[in-house]
Amino acid sequence: MIRDNLIAIMPHGAPARFDRRDLLVALALTGLVVTLYARTATYSFVELDDTLYIPMNRHVATGLSSENIRWALTTGYEANWSPLTWLSFQTEVSLAGGPRPGVHHTTNFILHALNSVLLFCALRALTGARWRSAAVAALFAVHPMHVESVAWIAERKDVLAGLFAFAALWAYAHYARQPSVARYIAVFVLLALGLASKPMVVTLPAIMLLLDIWPLDRWRDAAQRRLVVLEKLPMFLLVGAASVWAYAVQQQGGALAGGVPVHARISNAILAYAGYLRRLVQPTDLALPYPHPLLPGQSGLPPAHIIALALALLLAITLAALLLALRARMRAPIVGWLWFVGAMLPMSGLVQFSTHAMADRFAYLPYVGLYIAIVWLAAEVADRVKFNAPERAGAMAVVLVALSLLTWRQVVHWRDTFTLFNHTIAVTDNNAHAHYYMGIAHAKAGAALLRAGHTGQAHQRYEAAMAQYDAALAINPDDVKVVKEKGTLMFSLGRFPEGIDLYLHVLRRRPHDTDVRDRLLLVAAALEGDGKPDDAKRVRDAVARIVR
After folding, report:
1. Is 33 within 8 Å of 141 (Cβ atoms)?
2. Nearest alpha-carbon partner for 444 in 61, 55, 152
3. CB neighbour list of residue 94: distance below 8 Å, 6 or more residues apart
4. Taking phi first (over 0 means left), then psi (-120 to 50 degrees means alpha), and beta for anything else, what does residue 71 get?
5. Over 294-330, what HEC string results?
6. DSSP conformation class of 141
7. pTM
8. Which of 171, 306, 417, 438 is deepest in the core (most CB within 10 A)?
9. Is 256 helix (H, G, I), strand (E, B) or coil?
10. What are the residues facing 253 on neighbouring strands?
11. Which residues lie below 8 Å from residue 158, measured CB to CB, with a gap of 6+?
12. Residue 1, Cβ neighbours under 10 Å: how many?
């Protein structure tokens, strides 16, 4: 009975047959990605998360082991539960004989190439349209907004989750056309693997429902629609559990930014959606991170009329896509638009994670919906005005070349920490985070020079770090992590009274910071050893008053 019902809602037609032209498309997509990203194999770790995730994380830096595998499966390290991502890093470390940034970078761009091919295969199987599917996959392969997900080692989460998401959509295309329990299980397992890489794929079952409308046409009557929804229920239960778990891990890890009013989160989400649309067509000022407008030192939310204009733009696009579906029988634009809106929703800032207004990496999966809407709409227009194949190919080539040139330039910014954050400071205003990470990079470079005996150069680096920390504190004087790093730097420069004052300031704000407490007690012991018992006692007494 169940099988009969499933067969009744099968889309018409057999799955598309793949031939040599499809293989050539796959090879071309791979070549595009390798050409644009192969340089990253010579790039280093960046101080934002890369070093914390791999060389400074003993559970990753020591490679695969039973202890490290258990850790990967259970940890909420850095407010993330992404066991497959950790396991992939551990595997690379074991194979390479230690943390090697070039190895991790290479894996990232290989995964992006695979994702581009899988996206093409999924769309080819779903729609039967070779060249439109190839155009979507090519836009995905070369768009500059995806550089952050590929060139940033820490965002292995994106490219790995994307691998399983696109594989799941390909498997779903085959299941929808020829249902079977085995094929359903394959889709479910791939969804679960995607969630274990990064929770961003929680919207995948909803995307499948959209694909049931177009191109699969599985919503032909009420009974069929009911069955289509029922088959998604186990998937929605899975992503619901994953969402609750991810929220709990983020909350426990301190990644949820409190204190942002609901109306402000809604306003920022509207602006973020408009910002993603702008960067779709003008990806020229990409940065990491984009500070939230309500952070200290920022200008605040724009005037109400700007937010209203952004909302009007979103509503106008929605209305236009609906009219195309109802009057012109073009369903691809509304499905693609809703794919984008829905897939971006968990990352829109309505639930405020961290302190970013938006992030390029969040567009990795949602932008696919926009590519579908644009490509199918453009193809329909080209059909109506009778553009021939060379004209269409020429127009697509111009777009791909322009985007590839922008991506080529954007990839360079990820060469190292200094290059990345110099660029970010240049294209954003009052970016305290960028100054902070520049300070960290200078301080580490100074420490390395000091160990090598280059005292003069080391102190120059320390002074450069101090200037970056001061710039960050000029924007946000209450940022205790910057104050702590500045205090550490004071100790490195031998300026102990200033370092002590800064560390005590941090301890007053964070009395349970055992690292700061222990460092102060070590300083007190050093002062006593230098014959300064009164100074040592003052430090110990100050610590005792704060932590009692």
Report:
1. yes
2. 55
3. 63, 64
4. alpha
5. CCCCCCCCCCHHHHHHHHHHHHHHHHHHHHHHHHCCC
6. H
7. 0.93
8. 438
9. strand
10. none
11. 149, 150, 198, 200, 361, 364
12. 5
Pick from 533, 543, 534, 530: which is nearest to 500 by CA?
A: 543
Greatest CA span in the chain, whole angstroms? Answer: 90
Token pair recorded at residue 466: 């101090």
Indicate if the alpha-carbon torsion angle 334, 336, 341, 346 is positive or negative: positive
Q: Report which of 437, 436, 443, 503 is spatially closest to residue 470, judged by C-alpha positions.
A: 436
Q: How many residues make up the chain in this entry?
A: 548
Nearest-Å Rg of the Cα atoms of the chain is: 26
pLDDT-derived band at 352, boundaries 50, 70, 90: low
CA dihedral 461, 467, 473, 479 (to 10 degrees): 0
Reduced to 3 states (helix: H, G, I; strand: E, B; else coil), residue 208 is: helix
What are 378-428's pLDDT values in tens digits?
999 998 888 888 999 999 999 999 999 999 999 999 999 999 999 999 999
Q: What token pair was written down for 163?
A: 């691998």
Please give the helix or strand (H or E) that residue 358 lies within, else none: strand 356-358
CB 10 within 8 A of CB 177: yes
CA distances from 278 to 146, 246, 260 (A): 15, 29, 25
| Angle (nearest 5°) at CA 372 between 368 and 375 | 130
Q: How far apart are CA 337 and CA 322, in angstroms?
A: 10
Q: How far is CA 510 from the centre of its chain?
A: 29
- Among candidates 490, 492, 484, 495, which has minimal Cα distance to 517? 484
Residues forming a β-bridge with 256: 353
Say if residues 370 and 280 touch (Cβ distance below 8 Å): yes
Residue type, 221: D
Paired tokens of 100: 């090697």
What pLDDT score does 354 carry?
A: 67
Q: Which residue has the tokens 């230098």?
A: 530
Q: What tokens does 75 get? A: 């940890």
Phi/psi at 281 (5° precision): -105, -15
The tokens 């007053």 sit on which residue?
A: 508
Q: Given pLDDT bands bounded at 50, 70 and 90, which one contains residue 18? A: confident
d(CA 539, CA 445): 30
Q: Which residues does residue 358 pair with via DSSP β-bridges, in sequence order?
A: 290
Q: Which residue has the tokens 């008053």?
A: 545
Question: Which two structure tokens, joined as six digits, stand for 73?
Answer: 């499966």
What confidence category does residue 164 fall into, taking pLDDT thresholds of 50, 70 and 90? Answer: very high
As a whole number of angstroms, the distance between CA 537 and CA 186 comes to 66
CB atoms within 10 A of CB 512: 8
Find out whether 86 and 101 touch, Cβ atoms under 8 Å: no
Written in H, E and C, the secondary structure of 94-143 is HHHCCCCHHHHHHHHHHHHHHHHHHHHHHHHHHHCCHHHHHHHHHHHHHC
Q: Is omega for the bond preceding 215 within 30 degrees of 0, making it cis?
A: yes
Would you give the DSSP letter of residue 478? Answer: T
Sign of CA dihedral 233, 234, 238, 239: negative
Angle, CA of 228, 233 and 237, to the nearest 5°: 155
* Per-residue pLDDT tens over the stretch 461-487: 999 999 999 999 999 998 999 999 999
